[in-house]
Structures are given as structure tokens and as C-alpha cells.
Amino acid sequence: MAARKKTSKAAKPPRSEAKPSEGGPPPGKAKPGEARQTDALVKRRNQKFDTLTVDLIRKTASTVHGEIRGRKKPDLAFPVRSLRNVSYSQKTGYFEMGRQKKIRTLTVNTVKSFAQTLRMMGLSKQLVETNDFATKRDAYYQSKNWEEARFDEQPESDSVMDDIEALFSVQGISREQLRFIPDEHGGAVAGRLVVLDPDRETGEIERIDCTRFGSGAYSIPSSVEQLSFETDAKFILAIETGGVFQRLQSHKFWQTANCILISLAGVPTRATRRFIRKLSDECKLPVYAFVDCDPYGISNIYRTLKVGSGNAAHLSQFFCVPQARYLGVTPQDILDYQLPTHPLVDVDIKRARDALKNDPFFKAHKPWQKAMDQLLKMGVRAEQQALAKWGLNYVIEEYLPRKLEQTAGFLP
Amino acid sequence: MAARKKTSKAAKPPRSEAKPSEGGPPPGKAKPGEARQTDALVKRRNQKFDTLTVDLIRKTASTVHGEIRGRKKPDLAFPVRSLRNVSYSQKTGYFEMGRQKKIRTLTVNTVKSFAQTLRMMGLSKQLVETNDFATKRDAYYQSKNWEEARFDEQPESDSVMDDIEALFSVQGISREQLRFIPDEHGGAVAGRLVVLDPDRETGEIERIDCTRFGSGAYSIPSSVEQLSFETDAKFILAIETGGVFQRLQSHKFWQTANCILISLAGVPTRATRRFIRKLSDECKLPVYAFVDCDPYGISNIYRTLKVGSGNAAHLSQFFCVPQARYLGVTPQDILDYQLPTHPLVDVDIKRARDALKNDPFFKAHKPWQKAMDQLLKMGVRAEQQALAKWGLNYVIEEYLPRKLEQTAGFLP
User: Fold this and answer.
1) CB neighbour class for A126 (10 Å; exposed up to 12, middle 13-18, buried from 19)
2) How confident is the model at residue B47 (pLDDT cuts 50, 70, 90)?
């Protein structure tokens, strides 16, 4: 049942005198000299990381090789991947992996998984050297030609890959830099942004102008490590639903508000999170999240975007977006904008209570505790499209401009 | 358990002497005169459909209005949306809606839903006239300001919208032409294609060159009715997984094979299916599907792409792609390419048997019955990425070029 909140006021939308700021000049109009310099910079940075990755793989393998030649038992120490081994500090802004390690020593019992780990690292080295990549599934099937070291099941190869990922994450190298890419799609991007993407073979930089896609958008590739950016936008707007993204894109909200729109399509994929993080870091852009006002939107979509998730803390340093702030829809918005609501169901209530009780993020942020308490007391949730009650484009003409005048008041 | 098929042959990949054909000149290099002509054509065609849509809405409403003024009971006749009211002919190539109608007459009991239907049609007219659009959810929330005609629950407004969609589909007007768009993302596109997309406000045509997205791609908008195309590609390759799409895109397979790559990401969304259909129709391009060899890939992903689905036959005329053919992975490929497999589980077997017994598509196509029988006898399934056993780029260098030499042998 849609428990529409009754108010004593007449059904008139709240209005603001605010107008969205005028758009500046089009992005990405660098002079040829500057452009060349940027291209060279992009290439140098990418090469630097590749060299670092290959060096680390070689160093790890050499140590093992040396120990075997010295008739010692080699071992590999992997960080423990679990919520037990996680900490959260507001200063770094994301879940961090602790110091617990699990040691895998080469013995008769471990010889197969030890060999598989080394083969997987060898595959990674080969991928970097040939400027290629593999998905988890590709890697599993590749192993079918590794004879005795082949994996019988994909969960086995996934687990070895996760260990390698955790091992190298300590050195600041992500799985994508090891050239293991996710199988999932990235999100969609539109707005005042030029993406610089070097050709896999020639290294020539393709400049992708995200203002030029009509009603369509730029689809983020599975791996974004090689990308660089040029933009004069003032902020990134990360949007939960495809419907709202399409509305803002078709109405060129990015032009009037001078921003970059990114569609999360629910809980954002690795590629989408990494894209937002890189773009925000490199271009010093604030990130505002615009999601449904319900425990899922807040504690799953937004929390995951901002600080990462507990059981994958070794990823947080690359994938979370600590600079993200919560634009809305807030519990207070439901009242202020007299939004149509749905009652919270049991799973919503459980999720909210869990967050308040167990989640280090919510425990660290008083304003979120208050907001979540308010939501629980109100006993309702609201979707971002509920703003359509006041007109399909109310979100563009009133809600967002008004919100964007008070960014300091956004939830952390 | 991965039941890896054992063969007596040595583990060497099957090879072909075939090389992919050379790419032609870059697409979309029309002369200025030609380009202007195309722009005018695009605009004229879009206006024609909009005029037709508004005329039909007005005609329907006028009839109702006239009957009320004449003190008669007006009614609306909606086609019945169910599998009972569906037929399949190989000639049209998709599930077609039958002639059964349900009549909604204006009475005391139906007055609310009758009014809601007319309001929804009114919203559609307004959207066409302002060149705007709404998702199902937007429309539901819009109704919250329709006073007595407001919907209490979204399923109610969805159902009214589906009826209107079915009503107008008889006249060849789709829901997207009524400006009700899906909330879901479209798929990703890369390759030898220029998409022409008129600006919502100025009508100016944006030309989007899908060869220029680097490792990223063009993300299909929620509605594609307004798009036109320029291409010199020879075919469309529709790909199930994001991983294989990314590989073909990053290695510019579209250049060597002179084609357009489209990522389905599982069962394709409405926008993706409509995009493929429109592109294939307007540019006379064959469509080849490249999906996993399992009952889900065949009877859900491929069958839905090609002929539509039973309970939404009123959509098939717009959304299915009757010209699609099945490139692979076929059950025979599992043997020919000695692919690693997984055993069929109960749900796979049930799905395959259901398709053979009840699905008009499989009942009409002998080659599919044989292929499905073969799969059931083999008792295994294979993923498209299983080709990575022979090397990550075996799919590009051997499998696809070889297959594309024998398109006549593709399953229907």
C-alpha cells in the first residue's frame, strides 16, 4: 500500500527563487600544444604503473624462486579478507584492511594452490606486457590449458585471484592494474567532461566528449585505469535510477548546472565506483549522491559508494569515494516536499537497525544516526521519482537547484 | 562440478586459415549536402510519427467525448494481453497478438479506471507536444496530483499504461512513441556506426560516431525512436556478456570484421532490442547472436531477442528482431572446439524440455529441436568465455572469423 502522507497544506509544490548557474565554456578545448603535453603525461603515468606492477610480480616470484633454490620452504603472506580485519577512520574516509595475514607455505598439501597462485601472477604479468586483460571467467578458462595447475571450478580461481588482489593492494596496486577486469558493465556518463583513453595498440589518445551524445551517454569500460580527464565542471552528480539520469541527460541539466551526470543503476559496479573516484581525485570535484530515501539507497548504494563494503576492504582504497556527500532524497525532504511515500517493510527496518547498530560508518556519523532514526520514526520511504508529483521536470527546475545552494548541509 | 569433456585428441585448438575481412573506409563520412538532406529526413520522419500519435489520441478521446454528449455509454476495446491470444508465424517472424478484445465500458463501477485511462492518454499527448517523456514510475507519481483520478499503487498505473500500449500498438504506435519510456539502461554499442540523434529542444542533429569511444562505448538511451543511423558495416553482432563485448571492443574487432558490436548484458532491455531492430531494419543489416550455449542463453536471451515473449506479444512488432540468427555457441561447437563445460542442472533441463514441448518458436524450427535435443543428450552447457581455454584472443583470431565464413549454417 502506498501510504500517501496527508498534509494540511494545499497540494502546491515548494518553490525556490534559485536558478541553476549558467554553463561556462565547452570543456576540452585545450590548445594543441597543451593537448600534446597532456597526451604524453597520460602515457607516462600509465607506463609508470605498468612498470611498477611487473616489477612487483617479478620481485614476489624471484623471492619464491630464490627460496626454492636455497632449499627453503617459500611462503606467501596474504592479508586476511574479512570484516574482522577491517577498520574505519573518518580521516582516511573508507574501510581499511588490518594487518592480519594468512601465510601459504609451499608443502606437499599446498603445492597445487601455490602453483596456481604463481601461474595466475604469471598470467597477470603477461597481460600487462601485452597490454591485454582478462575477466575472472577468462582466467578460469585459460587455466584449462595449465595441465596439473588447472582449476576445476571457477570459485577456486576467483579465490586465488582475490588473494593476489589483496596481496598487491598492500602495495597500492589494484586488480585492474593486474589486468583482471570485472565482467560487469560500467555505468553511463553525460556532461561537461572529456575522457582521454589511449588506444590499446598505438597509444594514440582518443578524446571522448561527453557533451556530444544526444540522448545517449558514454558507457564506462570495464577497466578505467588508463583513462584521464579534462573538465571544467563544478561537481559530479551520481544518480541511482536510469529514469532520473535519462531525464537530466535529455534536458541537459549538466549544461545549466555545469556538472557531470553518472548513472549508478542501483549499487554501482566496480568500474563505475573507480571511475567516479579517479575523476573526483584527479579533477578535485565534489561528488553528490542522489538516491532513493530508503535504507537500501542509504546504507547499500550510498554507503558502498562512499566507504566501500566490509568484506572487500582491500578494495576500498581504490573503489570508494570518501569525498561523496548525500544530496538526497533525505528523510527531511519527504516532509519538506510532501512526497508520496511507501511504508517501510520488515527488511527495510532490519536494514536500518543493523546499520545503526553494527555499521562503523553510521556509528561514526551523528547526522546519519539522526536521519536514520527519523526515517524509522516516520515509518515510510520515498523514491527519487516521487518528485514527479509536482511535475515531471520539478526535479530539474526546483529540487536540484534549491539543494545545490545548500551543499554544506548535505549529509556526510 | 565442471564436467570437463575428455577427448582423445591432444589439447590443441582447432584452427582455420580464414582471416577476418579488411575494414572499409570509416563510416559516416557523408558529404555536407547529403548530411543536410539526411537531417531533414530524420526530422520529417520523427514529426510524422508524433503527428500520427497525437491524432490517434485525439480521435480516441473525441469518440468517447461524442458518445457522452450523445448520452450513450462510451467504451474502449483493448486487445487481450496473454499467451492465449498469441500466434507465431515464420513469415512475420514474431509472436503476434490475436483478435481477442476486452471492452471497458463507462459505468459507475468503471468510472475511475476509465478516467485514469483518459488522463494517462492526456499525459501522453502532452508529452509528445512538449517533446518530453515519462517512465512508468514518473507517470504513477504524476497522477498523485490528479485528485480523484490518482493511482494508489504503481501496479494499477502500470496496468493502465499496458492497456493503452496494447490499444495503440494495433495502430503501429509503440509505448515509446507515446513517450512512456523504460526505467532501465540500454546496452552498449561500439563499431562502424554513426547514430543521428536530434536535440530535444533545437532539433539539431547530433552525430555520434561509435568508432570513437576508446575502450568505452555508446550507451543506448531509454528511448530510441528518434534515432537514425549511417553505417557501412556488414552485420550486427549481439553479445551476451560484458566480458566478451569488452574484449571485442578493446581489440577493435568491429574494424577487422567491419561490424557493429552490441552488448546485451543478459536478456536485452526494451531499448536494446528496439535499437537492434531499428538499426537492422533501416540499414538492412543481418543480426548474429553470440551467447552462452545453455537453455537460458538459447530459449531466454536469443528467443526473446528474435521473436519476443509470450505475455507481451503486443510489443513484438516493435521489439523483436526476426532477422536475428544464432552464431553460437552451439551444442556442436562444444564438441568441435573441445570446450570446457558444466553439467546441466535440473532447471536447465526443465527449461529445455519446456521449450521443446510448449514454445511455438522451437516447435516451428526443426534445426532448433535437433540442437536442443543434442544439448540434452550431452547433458552439459558451455559459456562463451570457455573459448578462452585456447587463448584469450582465440575468440577474435579463430572462432569468430571461422564462424562468419559459414553464416548460412547459423541456426534460425
Assistant:
1) middle
2) confident
